[in-house]
């Protein structure tokens, strides 16, 4: 395993009297899938926002990327550091094409004009590189299935230069077949050398693609296990009872 791409040390986040995240340590390396699993209220949403630069850690916590401690002022700083997050809502515009969504807010230009031809060519390149199965980059996103929409949202962060892709409940509300397609996309990201963090409450869905599991319970790390050294039952036990 290569040196960690990202390390989090003693991450804490308190809102008033509520300790949402309590001293979380984690790391993830290039070419690895780390799944953070836990029940509702475990602190997953707050943790993902800390890793994405939405929240700053409480004093004493730090995020290290490429060996350097980060001081992010917001999500853009995290993206500039190669850390990008795909949230459940995907933030896609249904009426616009796949290519337009891939470059949303970052349109390629030739002089004062949007360069649609260059955007289509680059969209086709990234989708081909990661074998994303879409009918065309010219169709509106409204015509895509749930799994295909996930692929568009992931393709967008890859075009932003993401080296670590954080996926927030990527199979939520998807059927079995569409969930399988999303899991296949995650596997291709890992095979391409990307680091991937998957946030999920559905352990069975992410089991096959995961290299290591972090069980989160009441804002704390209940345990970290390599897949080959654990079982589904043990991870469920950690989520419910802790170590």
TrEMBL record:
One of its GO terms (molecular function) is ATP hydrolysis activity. SMART domains: AAA (SM00382). Keywords: ATP-binding, Nucleotide-binding. SUPFAM superfamilies: P-loop containing nucleoside triphosphate hydrolases. Residues 6-243 form the ABC transporter domain. InterPro entries: AAA+_ATPase (IPR003593), ABC_carbohydrate_import_ATPase (IPR050107), ABC_transporter-like_ATP-bd (IPR003439), P-loop_NTPase (IPR027417). Pfam families: ABC_tran (PF00005). The keyword NADP does not apply. The keyword Calcium does not apply. PANTHER family: CARBOHYDRATE TRANSPORT ATP-BINDING PROTEIN MG119-RELATED, SUGAR ABC TRANSPORTER ATP-BINDING PROTEIN. This is Monosaccharide ABC transporter ATP-binding protein, CUT2 family. It comes from Jiangella alkaliphila. The lineage of its organism: Bacteria, Bacillati, Actinomycetota, Actinomycetes, Jiangellales.
